[in-house]
Structures are given as structure tokens and as C-alpha cells.
Specification:
Length: about 400
């Protein structure tokens, strides 16, 4: 819901939080071009002075966030997303990391990851990024099938991806991850099998699979996509099933609701131990105490408050210029919503929830609705996610657009 005082709610929550650690998400919206399926908060920009102004406001926003916290915060996880963060030049990338370290105490062993546009990177840039502390790369790919890429207006050859992976492996980045979107125009259950086989050759450490929904009302450029080329719901179910079966046959382990990792991955071990968690930051091996979101449209999750920054760059910059957090929207934080989010995330991560923890009548009604559809079942003292639920719920609880991904 839009709330004129949303920044006060987040400030108050930061001011009373006892957490001494936090994860930090930083959004860099700029991209050199926009593919037809893009559903991220993206700005096509070629003027580096505009990017410099953005980084200046980002520097101030990070300082504001640090100043609002009741206790000095240590940042133990950082993710830089976009857009295409690596569209920034070398000086700008260094400036960004300096702003983060200047505002917060970043732990020496902090996990730092960055989304990478493989069409915009090079060995020298990866060397700089690694020198700035980034250990985890996430390649924005969507699909490797040439016909699907043609529908999306992308030009990203498989050989280019092979080169990027080869360089990143040679440089010994801790992990090199990838997204795989299902439900794209021109995508079929047959084509995705070939894509899975090709991706397995690249051997990403982790694949996050999100479903795509064409939304020309929210993203006008998507109107250029051929509606007749969009898979039906039945076909999307078949596509995701082919992804899950194909990746597991290639040795990947299915973790959470929609991610696949190589054996021995920390998230796989967390799921086995029952400590896998999900937050606004994504999957993690254990509980994330709070998430701070900086930049255009970024999401923060502090206590029971889940808030999003302005998505209009002028409004975002004006708010920061006035010395206040640029938060515009509060995600519902009623007692029911907090309980619902907790139950859904527990099901997502570990496929089971103790019945005793579902004490809200409305949440119990929701769980019963899931059971009536065959998505969950009750055994002993637990609610379990069924195989049908695991296959079907990624179509309702995941989305390739961060704007529609909140739980």
C-alpha cells in the first residue's frame, strides 16, 4: 500500500531494532538496452553523468540508513542487482563499493554478489570486480535457446556464455550462478530440455528458476512480444516439470521452491539441516536478521516492516535530497500477513510446517485451501508440501519480476 509516511515506519523500525547485522541489497537500474521481456526496474541510459548523480544520491542514502539504525550495523551479505550493474565503468564500480564501506562496517568474510550482464563484461572488468570483494557472480541469461532469445530481442550466444564461465572459473570466483526463466515466448517443453542440457555443460553452481508473465500494462515495451507465442498455463507447467526433471538428471539438487544447486552447495546442506530460509534477499543458509534495500525500487525488510523505495528516479532523488529515506510503499504487515508470510516461507524452504505454529484462523484456512488442491497434506503433527505442490506453486509464488515476487 502507498503510505506517505512509509519512510517513518522504516526509520522507526530501524531505530528500535536490536539486530547488529544486516544484509544489504543495492539496486543499479541502468542498462545499455532493454530486451522485450524485461520486467525489472530498468533505465536505458548512456550518459555517465546521469549515473554519477545516481551514485551520489546512493552514497547519501546508504549514510542515511546507517544513521537510522539503533545499533551500529555490520553488513555480512551484499547483493548488487539491476539493471546491469556491470554497465558502470571501473571508476563508478569502485565508487559504489567505497560508498558501501564508508557507510557500514562490512565484515571481512561478507558474502558479496553481483548480477552480471555477460554481454557487457570482460576479464579486466571481472578482475576489478573481484578486487572490490565480489566473490559470487549471477549471470542474467533467461534462456540459452536461440529462438527464444530472438523472440526477446536478445543477442547472447552460447559461446559468449562459455567464455564468461571459463574466465570466471579460471579466476576462482566462489560461485557463478545463473537465472533460468520459464514461460517465455517461443519456449516449449521440448526446447527447454535442450536448454537444460546446454546449461548443464556450463555447470553453474546455482540456477534460480522464475516464471515469466507478460504484463504490457506495467511494462509497455512488452506489448511488442507476440501474444500468440506465449506458452499456455498447461505448457508452462510442462516446461517447469522438464526443467526440474532435466536438472535433477544432470545431478543438480532441488532446493526451496524454485532453485537448483550442485551437490555440496551450502544451500543444499542448509535444507538438509532444516535451516534454509527465504527473505527479501532470497534464499540463505540461515536466518537473515534484516535486509536493507538501497537504490531505486529496492526492498527493505526490518522486523515486521517490508517496504519499497520509490520507483520514480526523480521522487527517489528528491526524498534523499530532503534527508529522509526514499521509502514509498509498505507491504502489508498485519498480524495475518506476517503469519502467512512465515508459513509460506517455511513451506518453500523446508517443505514442512508444524501444525502447532499455524495459530491464525485465516492462515489455517489458507493452508486448508492448499490441502484441498492437493498442494499440501497433513501427517502426524506437520503440514507437508506434496510433489504436486512443489511442481505447481512456483507458478504462483515466484516471478521473474521482483515487483511481483514478494511473499
Amino acid at each position: 500500500m502507498v503510505d506517505d509516511n512509509a519512510h517513518l515506519s522504516l526509520s522507526n523500525e530501524l531505530g528500535k531494532s536490536n539486530a547488529t547485522t544486516a544484509a544489504l541489497y543495492v539496486h543499479i537500474p541502468f542498462c545499455p538496452s532493454r530486451c522485450l521481456s524485461c520486467d525489472h526496474l530498468t533505465i536505458v541510459e548512456h550518459d555517465h553523468k546521469v549515473m554519477d548523480r545516481y551514485l551520489a544520491h546512493l552514497h547519501d542514502e546508504l549514510a542515511l540508513m546507517a544513521g537510522q539504525s539503533r545499533l551500529p550495523l555490520q553488513i555480512n551479505r551484499i547483493h548488487i542487482g539491476g539493471g546491469s550493474p556491470n554497465y558502470l565503468d571501473d571508476v563508478q564500480l569502485a565508487r559504489l563499493m567505497a560508498s558501501i564501506h564508508g557507510a557500514f562496517d562490512v565484515t571481512a568474510d561478507a558474502d558479496i554478489s553481483m548480477e552480471i550482464n555477460p554481454r557487457r563484461t570482460s576479464r579486466s572488468q571481472l578482475d576489478l570486480i573481484q578486487g572490490l570483494g565480489v566473490q559470487h557472480l549471477h549471470l542474467e541469461v533467461r534462456d540459452v535457446d536461440a529462438n527464444v532469445q530472438n523472440e526477446l530481442g536478445r543477442t547472447q550466444s552460447y559461446s559468449l556464455l562459455e567464455d564468461v564461465y571459463s574466465v570466471a572459473r579460471d579466476m576462482k570466483f566462489a560461485t557463478v550462478n545463473m537465472d533460468l526463466v520459464f514461460g517465455l515466448p517461443g519456449q516449449t517443453s521440448k526446447s527447454i530440455k535442450n536448454s537444460v542440457a546446454m546449461i548443464a555443460e556450463l555447470a553453474p553452481d546455482m540456477l534460480v528458476c522464475q516464471q515469466y508473465t507478460r504484463r504490457p500494462q506495467q511494462f509497455p515495451h512488452q506489448a511488442a512480444l507476440d501474444d500468440d507465442a506465449m506458452p499456455s498455463l498447461a505448457e508452462k507447467l510442462a516446461i517447469f516439470n522438464a526443467v526440474a526433471v532435466g536438472l535433477e538428471s544432470e545431478g543438480y539438487e532441488w532446493i526451496g521452491l524454485n532453485a537448483f544447486v550442485r551437490p555440496g552447495h551450502a544451500l543444499s546442506e542448509a535444507q538438509a539441516n532444516g535451516t534454509l530460509r527465504y527473505s527479501a534477499f532470497g534464499y540463505s543458509e540461515n536466518e537473515v536478521s534484516q535486509v536493507l534495500g538501497a537504490g531505486l525500487g529496492a526492498v527493505s525488510e526490518v522486523g515486521d516492516v517490508v517496504a519499497q523505495n520509490f520507483v520514480d528516479i526523480d521522487a527517489w532523488q528528491i526524498a534523499i535530497g530532503q534527508g529522509r529515506l526514499a521509502t514509498q510503499v509498505l507491504i502489508e504487515t498485519s498480524e495475518f500477513e506476517v503469519a502467512r508470510r512465515s508459513v509460506m516461507r517455511r513451506l518453500m524452504c523446508n517443505s514442512e510446517v508444524p501444525i502447532s505454529s499455524v495459530d491464525q484462523p485465516d492462515v489455517l484456512t489458507l493452508v486448508e485451501s492448499l490441502e484441498s488442491q492437493g498442494y499440501t497434506e497433513q501427517r502426524d503433527a506437520f503440514i507437508y508440501l506434496t510433489e504436486l505442490g512443489r511442481m505447481a506453486l512456483p507458478h504462483f509464488w515466484s516471478d521473474s519480476s521482483p515487483r511481483f515476487r514478494w511473499l
